Amino acid sequence: VVFSLLVLGSSSVLPTAKRYPSAHVLNVHERFFLIDCGEGTQHQMRKFRVPFNKITSIFISHLHGDHVFGLFGLISSLSMLGRTKSLTIYADKKLKDVLDSHFNFFDNRLTYDIIIEGLNPEKEEIIYTDKLLTVKSFPLKHRVPVWGFHFSEKKQPDKMKKEMIDFYKISIKDIQKIKEGEGFTTNEGTFIPHETLTIPSNKPRSFAYCTDTIFHPEAIPYIVDADLLYHEATFEEQHKQVAKETYHCTSKQAASMALNSNVKQLLLGHFSSRYKNMKKLLSEAREIFPETYTVEDGMLVEIKHGPSFAHTYFSEELNV
Amino acid sequence: VVFSLLVLGSSSVLPTAKRYPSAHVLNVHERFFLIDCGEGTQHQMRKFRVPFNKITSIFISHLHGDHVFGLFGLISSLSMLGRTKSLTIYADKKLKDVLDSHFNFFDNRLTYDIIIEGLNPEKEEIIYTDKLLTVKSFPLKHRVPVWGFHFSEKKQPDKMKKEMIDFYKISIKDIQKIKEGEGFTTNEGTFIPHETLTIPSNKPRSFAYCTDTIFHPEAIPYIVDADLLYHEATFEEQHKQVAKETYHCTSKQAASMALNSNVKQLLLGHFSSRYKNMKKLLSEAREIFPETYTVEDGMLVEIKHGPSFAHTYFSEELNV
Questions:
Q1: Is B316's pLDDT higher than 60?
Q2: Active-site annotation holder among A66, A212, A227, A297
């Protein structure tokens, strides 16, 4: 099953010809979650063929323009496309006022409801859960209130080995119990352990998202052991002081977060437009955490089971 | 001298993978005027290398999102780039409230002043004038107040023939008078007519912009004899009824406007996303007005002196 991140925008506040501001689509088993929504998100969604009607909810890290200004156009377009199911946006609760005020000026009558779920600025909190997934928000530290997000698969029931069902003639009722973790006792009284009867389900995967933030080790408990961490890396090490003053991170600081939280792989994004390429920024991070990659707009990262996973550039021919 | 239109966005309300919402840059002698500012305008400006610091003013036809939503990001970016000279926006006076309300929510401290010049909904009006150019606004008809714009070069002084200055030994003071249209009387009392002494300056060029609007022949006096008319053509003839209901035009109606206002050339844009290509829409217009062209994002149209002018596709290698 799919668990992948599509990068729609990888610039910081000033976009460049090749990098749009922050926006990402996390595809978890064909549930599409939009994470941040900078200007032009709907154009990038068209370009990289993200199905508009499959976006169920939006997660906004903080109320700075380069993470929000795409909402107005996207919300309008979803209405033009006739959406009827409600759209939930997880964000600073102030976003409600922003949207109310905005749509008050334009003659938009939306075909669907928008639900704003205000995030907790004090502590980590479960904000969404379904059969497959749990999403938590947690506070980071920037010039305005900001949240990171942690998406984790739920552990799925182990699969029954078919030959065991036939061999022991196990009833449907007992199969259910075995899937939930129990063993099985035969009519003769022999106990067959759970592990003999089942193929273990995959280890749940997880993705953590941290932007924008000053270097903030207090967030490590919220992202620990993630399969993939996206962390902002606005600056090279030479601009460490600027990073501190503007409440951003260098790539080394992002790498230190990855190392100390024991994540498997690190994605860097949200780059300052001052850099022509990301080579230096990347090599500085890899000194600390070798499994580091810099993102590009259109990059599709598949989070796979097992010790490593591929990351692929998105092809315009492909569907997400 | 340059008089050209660069198309940044050619879609109507729903953008497509290849068409952004409305935005255009008119370059008049290296003065850059932005006309409408849909979402992603700043990205298109980067892509097609429009110099951010040379945009002196912005003209907004009406307060619908696909003509306005790019303002927030562009205004922020100009500030990030350290702009100090004020930026004038000609628009519905309500835009001031939209921007005040908007920037109230975001922690933007702009480095420059924004001046909103409210347009007159009753009648044609000169809204801008300098040594080279006059800009007028005039009312069109849509679901909300909407204005067209007419940009015209001023007639420049005729050029003195150098050999005449030498031959008649004409003083600087007299040269000035001749440039302004007078003749010259020699010391011997012979009158030399103005036409003999000068090379006539070029005929002033003009560009008219009409979107969004229902078919509105009342606007013909405001656009008459323009060298180039941009007119919305949201629909094909088969969707004439939809056009009427949504206060838009078919390409035939746009062509009829061009024919009856005696313009030289017609550009069609603001296309509904329902059409895969513009062939039918174009051929329907050409039945009425042969000198019609459909625009694409990135198209650069040079308005030249003389009976005809070239239109060229913009190359990313080129500067505007």
A1: no
A2: A66
